[in-house]
Write a structure and sequence with these properties.
Layout lengths: L12 E5 H8 L5 E5 L4 H10 L3 E5 L2 H11 L2 E2 L16 H6 L5 E5 L3 H7 L4 E5 L4 H7 L5 E5 L2 E2 L5 E2 L2 H14 L7 H11 L4 H7 L1 H8 L3 H7 L9 E4 L2 E4 L1
Parallel strand pairs: 1-7, 2-6, 2-7, 3-5, 4-5
Antiparallel strand pairs: 8-9, 10-11
């Protein structure tokens, strides 16, 4: 049987984009590393640091059903946070809100990817924990998935912040001889960027959040290697590994 070229199977370290990329390149064993810097995986690191188990959900409706089934708190949109319900996709809000045992955190990008994985090792990575994730990963195949964003028509928009977050993990892996060309390109993008924090602040996604009043969310997202937490998907929720 001929190999699937989209699976990057000859390589031990792979890189792809979005949910389709996760299914094609990540569906062949090993670890799947989901990167959604602004903001799902950054929010997951903040919540898991505080002892919260984070359940991914692909949509608000799926999240409502999941929260009912698990008894978890359901996060709301950033603009719908209240004093009585301060849990949202905002890392800054999660850092200041009372910690909950379980939180359902819907998002159409990183959370949606994690929610559709049926088996295997799934880890949430961002700039805050890239080095810790790389140190935790074993010798088997590793597929790093940049979640990206969505254009209004629903198509994938490759997002610079996720390329850099993925590149940070790949750089810290130090398994360059096993990389696919895609993984090498992502790593090189990270290594050749003079100031990763400034790039994230001033890329399209960073500008969108900052001009919408969520400057602190961006500042938390550009904390480089500030946490050793490695959120691992276990029994449907990200927990400290």
């Amino acid at each position: 049987m001929s190999q699937d070229p989209w699976a990057q199977e000859p390589y031990g370290v792979r890189f792809e984009w979005g949910p389709v990329g996760a299914a094609r390149a990540g569906g062949h064993g090993g670890a799947l590393v989901v990167v959604d810097v602004l903001s799902f995986t950054t929010a997951v690191t903040v919540a898991v640091e505080r002892g919260t188990a984070v359940h991914p959900a692909a949509s608000r409706d799926a999240g409502v059903a999941l929260a009912r089934r698990t008894g978890a708190e359901l996060a709301v949109g950033r603009h719908h946070v209240t004093d009585d319900h301060p849990w949202s996709l905002s890392p800054a809000a999660l850092r200041s809100a009372p910690a909950r045992a379980r939180l359902v955190l819907p998002s159409p990008n990183g959370s949606a990817i994690a929610a559709t994985v049926e088996d295997g090792v799934v880890v949430a990575a961002c700039l805050r924990n890239a080095r810790a994730v790389a140190a935790w990963l074993r010798d088997g195949p590793v597929t790093v998935i940049a979640a990206g964003e969505r254009w209004p028509d629903g198509s994938l928009r490759p997002a610079l912040e996720d390329l850099l977050g993925a590149g940070a993990v790949l750089a810290a892996l130090a398994r360059h001889d096993e990389e696919s060309p895609e993984a090498t390109a992502a790593r090189t993008a990270y290594e050749s960027t003079r100031s990763v924090p400034d790039a994230v602040r001033h890329c399209a996604s960073g500008v969108e959040l900052r001009t919408s009043g969520f400057v602190e969310d961006v500042e938390i997202a550009v904390e480089i290697d500030t946490t050793g937490v490695v959120p691992l998907l276990l029994d449907g929720a990200f927990r400290r590994s």
